[in-house]
Design brief:
Elements (H helix, E strand, L loop, with lengths): L5 E3 L1 H4 L14 E6 L3 E7 L19 H17 L10 E9 L8 E12 L2 E10 L2 E11 L1 H4 L12
Length: 160
């Protein structure tokens, strides 16, 4: 059965993304199919909290924040699935590549795709674009501990 795509405005997004200002790095989710993919964007302005320090006279979005923004979009694709709303998500592994600086005035369009999601372990890929040009990308493994821990082998002597 094909899931129906929907969008999330800035208020609806807060149900599926635990980060808040100043660390919520998604402005809008334009399309999400739970458990499959999520698309959305972050508008960058001169008012971002990191602009005064990264870098003076040559401001751009730090790579670690690009990774965080992309990871947040992947999290939306996961947490919109049935029974996942409000769950805590932890990073297991990230590998990012940066192709272009992301600057004030840019809109970072992100497309997150879930490659696999089993037993609380999600593998995904996210690409970030500026004006249609690839700016950054991320391969990620994310864990939902509440689900993942149910499948861990029990130690000897542990009760069921």
């Amino acid at each position: 059965m094909q899931e129906k795509a929907f969008s999330l405005n800035e208020v609806e997004l807060l149900k599926f993304q635990p980060n808040r200002y100043p660390f919520l790095l998604i402005d809008r989710v334009t399309e999400v199919v739970p458990g499959k993919y999520a698309k959305g964007y972050k508008n960058l302005t001169n008012n971002e909290w990191w602009i005064p320090v990264h870098f003076l006279g040559d401001p751009n979005m730090p790579g670690c924040l690009q990774v965080e923004a992309m990871a947040q979009m992947l999290t939306v694709a996961i947490l919109t699935t049935d029974g996942m709303e409000g769950k805590i998500v932890h990073v297991y592994k990230h590998a990012g590549t940066f192709h272009k600086e992301v600057r004030p005035g840019d809109r970072l369009d992100m497309e997150a795709e879930i490659l696999s999601f089993r037993r609380g372990l999600c593998k995904g890929r996210v690409k970030g674009y500026i004006d249609g040009e690839l700016a950054c990308e991320l391969e990620s493994v994310i864990i939902i501990p509440e689900v993942f821990d149910q499948y861990k082998p029990k130690k000897r002597g542990e009760d069921d």
